[in-house]
Amino acid sequence: MKKYETLEHPADIKIRAFGRDLAEVFVNAALGMMEFLYGKNICGDSPKMRNISTEVIKIKSRDLESLLVDWLSEILYLSDANNSAYVEFKINKISETEIEAEVGHCSAKAVEDIKAVTYNDLKVKKQNGLWVAEVVYDI
Question: What is the model's pTM?
Answer without folding.
Answer: 0.93
